[in-house]
């Protein structure tokens, strides 16, 4: 009698375990679909990491403040969460003026490159190593098998490199991609960025783009050089700053067309208050941020970011001081006013040493 009861009990126990197990199996099989392809490609990650990534994604995409304590988050996850929270709070701050776009314009959609294969959107911001990111995406899209194989003239040729712009899609396709793809951009200190653009386009011109020196510089000099008896010589940094800080700069911007991507604000380039970017990389910490981006995008095991020459991404205050030493305080303040949104949105400190 006693044995029979035991047997029955054991049977129930086995049945119960089977039910639990089957439930568990269906759950794990379902979850990749439920969270999209990206999660499926991350199943090799340990369980705890998988959960963190999922929570992070949810937060970024749906704008939900997480009630979860940050216990499960690594310091790196926490840093990136803070960056996004700062961005959102500055976007809402009306005293900073107009950081929002009425609509996401074609100009912005032209800046964003698409990998449909891996569901990634990348907003191009010059002077932060974006050529390397394009190469990474070109390889991911499958046109070339390694970064070294990509010819230099192909990288920026968007008819041939298999890296379409978001603007080449229909409106509904654009929305679909903005809503569901992994989105990122890289930023750097706004004033260092302008120095870099000035050096690259008007002093060194390594890519041989003569129109900067021959078409754009003379127009800026004519309008903004203070000493009109000294009209010769190339564009000086102070001329450039006076143009950029002029509240009526739009007049020339329109004349220069898309060349202005090298100096218009990140707000104008990438609409960070409208598009819910999943990760904001900083040029100053590019090495760590690049691998974080690849991991978050679910492609960390497929490709790596090319090696970064040591020292070139670090913020250099004495360089900034050197370039601005010829610029008047009034012009620096005006310049800051224009780029204040970029400083605040991305957590760059106000360069008080210049005022
Ligand atoms: C909004 O921005 C202004 C100007 O930078 C700042 O003084 C203020 O504290 C900000 N407000 C909030 C709520 O962040
Ligand atoms: C600022 O506001 C105007 C009017 O609402 C809008 O057209 C424009 O796109 C906004 N954003 C920027 C970045 O100028
Ligand atoms: C303006 O430029 C001319 C020619 O280079 C120079 O002789 C003159 O001293 C400059 N004036 C001022 C106020 O800098
Ligand atoms: C900072 O910039 C100055 C001037 O351009 C340069 O001489 C110096 O080597 C730079 N410092 C570092 C640490 O890169």
Layout: helices, strands, pairs:
Elements lengths: L1 H33 L2 H4 L6 H16 L12 H18 L13 H6 E4 L4 E4 L6 H12 L10 H4 L15 H10 L1 E6 L2 H15 L6 H14 L12 H9 L4 H7 L9 H5 L8 E4 L3 H11 L20 H8 L4 H17 L10
Parallel strand pairs: 2-3, 3-4
Antiparallel strand pairs: 1-2
Helix pairs in contact: 10-11, 11-16
The chain binds 2-acetamido-2-deoxy-beta-D-glucopyranose (4 copies).
Give structural notes:
This protein is mostly helical and 355 residues long. The protein has a domain at 51-196 and 265-320 and 340-349. 53% of the residues lie in helices and 5% in strands. The chain has helices at 2-34, 37-40, 47-62, 75-92, 106-111, 130-141, 152-155, 171-180, 190-204, 211-224, 237-245, 250-256, 266-270, 286-296, 317-324, 329-345; strands at residues 112-115, 120-123, 182-187, 279-282. Strands 1-2-3-4 form a 4-stranded mixed β-sheet, with helices on both faces. The chain is globular. The model is unreliable at 23-67 (pLDDT under 50).
Nutshell version of this structure?
The protein has 355 residues and is mainly α. 53% of the residues lie in helices and 5% in strands. The protein has a domain at 51-196 and 265-320 and 340-349.
